[in-house]
Amino acid sequence: MTFRARTVASLSAIGILALAGCAPGGAGETADAELGSEANPVRMGVVGASDPYWETYVEAAAAEDISVDIIDFTEYTQPNPALTEGELDINQFQHVIYLADYNVAADEDLQPIGATVTYPLGLYSAEYDDVADIPDGESVLVPNDTTNQARALLVLQSAGLVALEDGGSPFSTLDDVIADESSVEVKALDAALIAPSLPDAAAAVINNDFLEAAGLTSDDAIVTDDPSDPSALPYVNIFATRAADVDDEVLNQLVEIYQSSDEVIAGVLETSGGTAIPATTPREDLQASLADVEEDIRGAAD
Questions:
Q1: What's the distance, CA 221 to chain centroid?
Q2: Structure pTM?
Q3: Torsion of CA 242, 245, 248, 252, to 10 degrees
């Protein structure tokens, strides 16, 4: 196949959804044209198409004879419904937990087919340079929102500061901290208030979004979660497709292009301020993690 390169198509979510009545129903269904051809480009939904690396990605795909249109959405709630309805062939904006929440709430079965990056969550301290130096009984702050709190507790557990019931999960709360087996007292605070409160605690888990305003960088973390740790797997960002398309050759090739392009990865790292860690987690592991998280969500609802 030989196709010309396509430019990034930055379309509003409203415009895309307005086309729902005439959008094709799934990958490769456009008038006998092969998916990825000039006549039937892969429609990939993202949040933040203005990031320069997406143009680089489109060019890398074109070099492999795959035409891609990047469809820009303004809200995280939009790309999964658009994928479900056949307005997209694939999307890339979320981690495994977010997809699990969507699937359970919407009774859908979107599936990950490849990893992109993970954004480590770090523990910071104004006083200590090593977790081993934090005295017993000191206070450590974590975010009070559900997803970030659970992840923060897993960071503290991997650092040896706390022990969690049943080894912890993406849904752990302060109630799951085993006090007798933990060396610090964990307190929850609004994520936006944690960085300013850092001097009042021995350490704190601070979301990446609030580091710059606090004069911190990811290099200041005394410990971060380990992307290779199984407990961090649900936080890997992914490419997602409909279940019927998980074996589509073109879509899987697009995952490989993303993961293998030095230029694309360099652009992602630059955009993230160096915080992103490239991930090549096998899709089978991602799908198994998704199934586990979905089971946990359903179990918590019972």
A1: 20
A2: 0.80
A3: 20
